[in-house]
Amino acid sequence: MRSLAAIALLTAGCAYQPVSIAPADRFMAALGAHCGKAYEGKLVSNEAADADFFGKRMVMHVRQCSAKEIRIPFHVENDRSRTWVVTRTAYGVRLKHDHRHEDGHPDALTNYGGDSRDPGTAVRQEFPADAESIALFTAQGRSVSNSNVWAIEVSNRTFAYELRRPPGPGQRYFRVEFDLTRPVAPPPPPWGS
Fold this sequence. Notes:
Elements: H1 4-11, H2 21-32, E1 38-43, E2 58-61, E3 64-65, E4 69-76, E5 79-89, E6 92-99, E7 112-115, E8 124-128, H3 131-139, E9 149-154, E10 158-165, E11 172-184
Antiparallel strand pairs: 1-2, 1-11, 2-4, 3-4, 4-5, 5-6, 6-7, 8-9, 9-10, 10-11
């Protein structure tokens, strides 16, 4: 067993300190347990900004899984442009959004997201917008998104994807929940795969 002095020497100068491994690993294992399966979901938030999602069929598909990365396409009707990319890092969990056009080319707004800043739990991880995302949003005239915090939850019954912005101009709350007790047929591959 290492002494506290040895641990201090090993971590000296590190900008980030590794978070507790257990919650992030349990979270990734819970997601990975659904690999290959697809689930239908529904919008549970009710904001005017979400009007393009109202009444639409939504399916998430835990399509590709490795020890470090899980790719989850999110289909809205026939729109297969969105994939959530969840990665296990040395410091926690990272969420990125891969957005593609039907021809497979990346959208101007793609690869945004962030890293967990605290251990989170085996059920819920939160991802504040990272510096790369803030620069992208600002360059694309979408700086209202600079305060985005995304979250993913996975329990025995439900998978949820959430976006929040703090109260004030640009406030936003978006949440989709998927029933993990009722798998559906996997959808076609996402655009660009």
